[in-house]
Amino acid sequence: MSVSNFKFKRGFKSKAESTSDKFRRILGLKPYSPLPARQLAEHLCIEIIPPSKISGMTIGLLQIVNKSKEWSAITIQLINKKLLMIIITETQN
Questions:
Q1: Which of 35, 38, 70, 78 has its Cα between 20 and 30 A from that of 45?
Q2: Are 50 and 87 in contact (CB under 8 A)?
């Protein structure tokens, strides 16, 4: 399924807006302020790391990953649904 054909569940936008409003209040931000991803991750105790910190990442693979326009981040979860980390491309740092 391409991204252009993807359909969100009914109520997704409202729930996303409500959740972001809640976190803006918690972080002491104005309701119309951008929600800084790193600040939110820190508040939620989520580690953000670049691909270069992944064990076994070769220089060649790292160059491919960082030049890719196909992704900017990936979220990794444990089996128990606890968020472990977010890996971002070096260009996002």
A1: 70
A2: yes
Q: Tens digit of pLDDT for each residue in 48-88?
A: 888 888 888 889 988 888 887 777 777 777 667 665 677 77
Three-state secondary structure readout of the chain: CCHHHCCCCCCHHHHHHHHHHHHHHHCCCCCCCCCCHHHHHHHCCCEEECHHHCCCCCHHHHHHHHHCCCCCEEEEECCCCCEEEEEECHHHC
User: pTM score > 0.90 for this model?
Assistant: no
